[in-house]
Design brief:
The protein is of the alpha+beta class. It folds into 3 domains: 36 residues, no CATH class; 88 residues, Beta-Lactamase; 97 residues, no CATH class. It contains 7 helices and 9 strands. The strands form 2 sheets. It has a 6-stranded antiparallel beta sheet. The longest helix has 27 residues. The two termini are 35 Å apart.
Length: 264
Amino acid sequence: METGQTQLVDLHEFEREIVFGTVTPRVENGRVIGAAYFQRSARADLYSILAQWPDSTLAGEALLAERTEDGIRFLSPLVYRPNIPLLSLVLPKGDNKILAEQGLNSQTGLVQGTDYAENQVLGAVYRIPGTPWVLVAKALKTDAMGIADVISLVSALAAIVLLAIFSLSEQALDIASKVLPPLAIACCLVWPVSFAFPNVLRAAGDAKYTMIVSASTMWIVRFGLSWLLVKQFHFGLEGVWYCMMIDWVVLDTLPEAKKGRAAR
């Protein structure tokens, strides 16, 4: 406190309520002669903000955690452990599959793994400057992918209906029959990961990496490989569509490569 800088008072229980605050010392002639302490209610000023995400369409939650001597302590209300008192859940440290552990190990950004209830989840983790806390925003993997799969399946069925409505030539129908089945599968299995993850990164402020990756794969895979398949191997229009799906696969792997570098 001799530096005179304002410091965080971590979350703790006071008069049966979880509170936190800041303390600002007053220093004269190198000595602390007093301090001002400002206390805030965690439920009113912190937990209410976390509860705003996600909306009712997605099974997920936003939470806070920190590292202690015993392991990872969870600081906010827990959706999948509602009966556990606040600040009492501590998981052993060392399990890097847990999203909070990844964030505390400086592996911030888009991640996937497990939560405190051993659910398979997708999420984003970030350290909060000036605090020992890590913010985890996560959703159940099955729920997040299930929404995208339903949309993809409806789109594939709609495409088949449109083919039947329009009077297409035999050549156009032949091309569509070759492209639509693999495209429908790729939309369900590949597209959600290749585009949902980068959008989360952009929303979290990591736009530079996604811009470089998307621009690079567009020119190398979509344009370069399309030219190779069409001009050299005579795939025709189908080759262009196949290259687009290959581009999705490449985009799937690159966020994982970034996550691996961060862990090392």
